[in-house]
Design goal:
It holds the Pfam family V_ATPase_I. The chain has 358 residues and is mainly alpha-helical. The chain has 12 helices and 2 strands; from the N terminus they run H-E-E-H-H-H-H-H-H-H-H-H-H-H. A two-stranded antiparallel ribbon has the order 1-2. A hairpin with a 4-residue loop joins strand 1 and strand 2. It is flat and about 125 Å long.
Amino acid sequence: GRLGVLQQLQQQSHELQEVLGETERFLSQVLGRVQRLLPPWQVQTRKMKAVYLVLNQCSVSATHKCLIAEGWCAASDLPALQQVLRDGSSEAGVSAVVHRIPCRDLPPTLIRTNRFTASFQGIVDAYGVGRYQEVNPAPYTIITFPFLFAVMFGDVGHGLLMFLFALAMVLAEDRPAVKAARNEIWRTFFTGRYLLLLMGLFSVYTGFIYNECFSRATTIFPSGWSVAAMATQSGWSDTFLAEHPLLTLDPAVSGVFLGPYPFGIDPVWSLAVNHLSFLNSFKMKMSVILGVTHMTFGVVLGVFNHVHFGQWHRLLLETLPELIFLLGLFGYLVFLVIYKWLCISVTSAATAPSILIH
């Protein structure tokens, strides 16, 4: 009797396993079909959600039994908008009409950008978006921002590496794999590829001025300083050379300084003990000149805003005091720097006044 029960149970177990296997196969077929249909379904749901989102922002007119959507549109884009609405309404069988409504509100600022200007506009917008019809400073930052970066990062070698990296991104910008990359750090670099391109290019230029390539000076042209002329005219003896490990080149001695280096800083400075203090002084003064020029330019841009909006009082009460304070303090400093560069000769260099103390 027990054997019969056992066989019956085994047969039931076998039947259940067959049913389970069939169910699994059926489920995998259904899920396989769903997997293929999932991407178009996702697109459809996103479209429907987007449509409903827009419809929810419209107000319902009970009298005319229609939906009213109010929004800003650039005047030049109105024909395109009307065409799109015409095309859409002809397919759906619902008519859509565009009306221009008189409005006293200040319109939002629309600044058209392309792939080149977008990153520069992003930097300006991070500080604040200008009011409607104000001067947009972004076109000027296309030059000033990378150049002021290059003043800090002047190195031919490092700048060239940066330029080549950005150039590779620019050349590969239309490849699907590059566009689809989701790495956050990569996206940051890729968004600012044109910014990096100009930053690298300008760094190469300032690197030539600083005469630095991977932090080493290069002798492209012959140096403007002659050690031989100094040695012959100052009568350095063997005992003098033995006692003095450091020697000073005196430009007041004829033939020692032959003339300025053709472009940038003379490579002989890289051998000098006071190399850093000389360079820091030069870079600091140059940074002040560039910075004050930059700020003055910004104040002058404000003049165009005041004139455009007819706010003549702001020229007197805002721009004039700004310029007086800026140019009276820092403009005078810039004048002193340039005056000292031009008017202090080699012979009077030892007694030259200090701008800092002055």
